[in-house]
Write a structure and sequence with these properties.
Elements: H1 7-11, H2 17-25, H3 27-35, H4 49-67, H5 76-91, H6 98-125, E1 128-137, E2 153-162, E3 167-174, H7 181-207, E4 213-220, E5 225-228, E6 232-233, H8 234-257, H9 273-276, H10 281-291
Parallel strand pairs: 3-4
Antiparallel strand pairs: 1-2, 2-3, 4-5, 4-6
Helix pairs in contact: 2-3, 2-7, 3-8, 4-5, 4-6, 5-6, 7-8
Bound molecules: iron/sulfur cluster.
The site of iron/sulfur cluster (SF4) has 13 residues, from helix 3 and helix 9.
Length: 292
């Protein structure tokens, strides 16, 4: 079977939803980082605390969701006792600053309530659940190990629930700023396509479940909210959903090799500003002149 991905998309593999997002926001920056392999530290934020807090809260939720006893109903009294112990595991890290500890403590209750909703829903709907599930597909949409060197697109699904009738919920957990569904649609859709192709056969073989539909959402733990996208039947994800995924990956890969400058919200901390000439005013003009 011939792969539907173009040469540029294949050159840039392995892909992930984050990589696709970065390339979509600024193909020029992606070119410098992945193709020219410029030494600029493009991905280091001036303050990496938000990232550290996000990773710690993901680990916290992973511990609670995967280790909370299966035979105990997840009411808040039980969960508080259990969650407190998991929180101590997270806070053991001596490298955490006071500011980061404070932030983790302030997110604790939101994260625990989100876990309670997931665990209760799982019991109510008799769903199978998966936490931090690594999935991968090769260039022909065949399932492949996350770490395999031939993996074409891969991702870790924060939380996934599959009901006995095959209704699948994919949840991405956010700890930072209030997320908008619109700015994460591409990421959620790529998780749907990835999960469908990576897990369809496995679900049938291992659990006798035939996947039937997808719904994806963003769990914003600071407010215990889940922002849900629309339910998408399997046929849609398999058909136009997969085609859109291929088209956008091919298109963005071409833009990367064209070194297209698309000013995005990375500009404020991007290490390639002096190369791309995106700055306005005198300095920007100067850079544009040098480039010409
Ligand atoms: S400064 Fe903005 S436009 Fe220029 S490379 Fe960075 S992200 Fe792209």
């Amino acid at each position: 079977m011939n792969t539907p991905f173009n040469e540029n998309a294949l050159k840039l593999a392995p892909w992930s939803a984050t990589k696709l997002k970065i390339a979509t926001k600024c193909p020029f920056r992606a070119y410098q980082a992945w193709v020219a392999k410029s030494k600029e530290e493009w991905d280091i934020l001036p303050d990496d605390s938000p990232m550290i807090i996000g990773i710690k809260m993901h680990t916290f939720m992973e511990l609670v969701l995967s280790k909370f006893p299966k035979d105990v109903f997840p009411d808040m009294v039980n969960l508080n006792a259990f969650g407190g112990r998991m929180l101590q595991v997270i806070l053991k890290d001596e490298d955490l600053s006071y500011k980061e500890r404070d932030a983790i403590n302030s997110l604790y209750h939101g994260a625990l309530s989100t876990c309670q909703r997931f665990l209760s829903h799982k019991i109510k709907t008799k769903s199978k659940s998966f936490v931090e599930l690594p999935v991968g597909i090769d260039k022909n949409f065949q399932p492949i190990d996350f770490f395999d060197k031939s993996v074409f697109f891969r991702g870790k699904i924060d939380y996934m629930m599959v009901t006995p009738s095959g209704a699948t919920a994919i949840i991405d957990t956010k700890t930072g700023a209030w997320p908008s569904l619109k700015s994460h649609t591409q990421q959620l859709r790529s998780y749907e396509v990835l999960s469908l192709h990576a897990l369809k056969n496995k679900m049938r073989q291992d659990y006798n479940i035939t996947l039937s539909s997808f719904i994806s959402g963003l769990a914003y733990i600071a407010s215990e909210e889940v922002l849900w996208d629309k339910v998408r039947p399997l046929k849609l994800v398999e058909g136009s959903g997969t085609q859109n995924f291929v088209d956008s990956l091919n298109k963005v890969s071409d833009l990367v090799f064209e070194k297209k400058v698309l000013r995005g919200n990375h500009c404020n901390y991007c290490g390639y500003k002096h190369l791309c000439g995106s700055r306005r005013g005198k300095m920007g003009k100067k850079v544009q002149e040098v480039r010409m």
